[in-house]
Design goal:
Two copies of one chain form a homodimer. By secondary structure, chain A is an alpha+beta fold. Chain A has ten helices and 17 strands. The longest helix of chain A has 18 residues.
């Protein structure tokens, strides 16, 4: 861990560490979130933020770095349902990567063997990815069943009571009527039958590692194309969603193109370009991974249609100029 | 600053510091951004991120803390236009706070006097806010004219040439045709007439301080209301944009309310609530600062209209149930 000191004096009482993961802040806030919002078990708390590890040997681009962006969910559930929720999150998280364009062949979920598991865990899955710089798949995310280990540990250290973070089992949403519930059952009955320390399912991922995987996955080479290198980002991840080009910067074409650009730009990151040949403009957008280019040409003046060019196969279709933003929304499902 | 060490050994060669501001990373990347994107002067680079200061005495909630979120723009412009751009950013940034609901009476822009200014600066404005915990206005943001001080300093330290970050003055967008430009003019002519180290205008703001100001500003008390305390967030900043309530959880009202909720939820953070009296549900949303509540009642079944309740004055109007999302978009201008 990275060690530092707060305040003016550097002695052992002022020693602090940069957090090596974001998770513990969630556990510390668990009770606060339960009491101040209207959630009930099962629910999750998600956090994204910087974490720091004093790597002796940072390497592989941003794969292993001393400062990184971590994204974690702590999902709190009834122990009786924790295996089901573990399987739910494991499958959901695998599907998340696939749905954002990580090809299944490079994505390698690896369920840890029994001998690797902590005693409190019924399972942990590492979602691994085969980076081009590596012979072996590397971890992007871990989905861990952590049982009640963390909440019990925090209870013990804060109140010397490992059951400090018990919750009451209820089928109705929690609200101010917790008192009513206590009235209707004996305290003894509640304690034995309906209280538990929640189990935790923890999907914990590195945002930088995922970004690096997205870039590796998107990099494409096709020597038949005018600009052979291009980035095949999933449209939802493409930094520029669309470009608008008048074929030439005259003959009334910019006058048709500009309103289309302004409409798209309100909703999505987009670029407008009038310079150089249309081929160069397409190539530039291919390199940036822009999935769709709208081109306004002579025919646009006659019939009101524009060309939509698809980055992946360079195919072109014509649509009515009034439908550009709608078309983009359909394609991006945004 | 916070001091630490990288790697296994703690000696002077491994000493590192946590960054006290985000700005320097932008200057370091200035040339890279110029060369790899198609921007031309004037343009800005914006960044938001964590910064760290070893405050001896952190206080006033999140106002002065050791770890904070900073948001900065370095705007690069022609020295001849730098005063104009300084005034542009100073006014734009003041307007930004006002447009997000910070009342002008509490917002106190303070132009630094000549004696406070650095020698290279033609002006600096501190945008200050009068927090309830303080007798004097406190800084939320500084808008500084920094001249060419930073780029010259970086040039000197990287290449021992304070003109290392000179750019060529052009009226056309930069592109790969820089070579053409050089052909058409003699190198000597270019050097004397058309090269300059850009001046920098720097709006530098604390995201945490702004958030604290928003909370202070939103806190409202009206003893005539059922729930006297409520948060009058500007709708664009409200964490929940809308709530949907069936007046009662029967008589076919949830069947009308649920599709409305699902439609809104796709576009905006929204809540659905069927529990307790409608007054309690409104009060809960007032406390969370939700600007609009849609209520489905008996009349909704007859004429297809629903009630929209406005948080600020508790006024109610009826609109067609098909127009809820559209109404919200209009009100939020999102």
């Amino acid at each position: 861990m990275f060690e530092s000191h707060t305040g003016a004096l550097q002695d052992s009482s002022s020693k602090v560490y940069l957090r090596p993961e974001t998770a513990q802040g969630i556990f510390v806030n668990f009770k606060n979130v339960m009491d101040s919002t209207r959630v009930k078990i099962p629910f999750g708390i998600a956090q994204i933020g910087k974490a720091f590890r004093n790597e002796v040997n940072p390497r592989n681009f941003t794969f292993r770095s001393r400062e990184f962006e971590q994204m974690e969910i702590e999902f709190f559930c009834n122990p009786k349902e924790s295996r089901m929720w573990y399987e739910f999150w494991r499958d959901l998280r695998k599907g998340w990567y696939t749905s954002l364009g990580i090809k299944s062949g490079n994505l390698r979920p690896r369920e840890q063997g029994k001998e690797e598991l902590a005693h409190y865990s019924v399972g942990t899955t590492d979602i691994e990815y085969l980076f081009p710089f590596s012979d072996e798949p590397q971890e992007l995310e871990g989905v861990a069943h952590r049982g009640d280990f963390d909440l019990k540990a925090h209870g013990k250290h804060s109140k010397n009571n490992e059951n400090a973070f018990e919750v009451i089992e209820e089928s109705e949403p929690r609200s101010s009527d917790r008192a009513d519930l206590a009235d209707s059952e004996s305290p003894r009955g509640l304690k034995s039958a309906a209280r538990f320390v929640p189990h935790v399912i923890e999907p914990s991922a590195g945002a930088d590692r995922f970004t690096l995987a997205v870039i590796c996955e998107a990099y494409s080479f096709d020597e038949k194309r005018a600009s052979p290198e291009f980035m095949k980002f999933h449209p939802r991840l493409a930094p520029i969603k669309a470009a608008v080009f008048p074929l030439v910067a005259k003959d009334g074409l910019p006058e048709i193109a500009e309103p289309i650009f302004r409409e798209i730009k309100k909703a999505f990151p987009a670029q407008y370009d009038v310079k150089q040949s249309i081929g160069k403009r397409y190539a530039r957008m291919d390199e940036a991974g822009t999935p769709f280019c709208f081109t306004i040409d002579g025919q646009s003046k006659e019939d009101g249609t524009v060309t939509v060019r698809n980055r992946d196969d360079a195919s072109q279709i014509r649509i009515d100029k009034s439908r550009c933003l709608e078309y983009l929304r359909e394609q991006l499902r945004l």
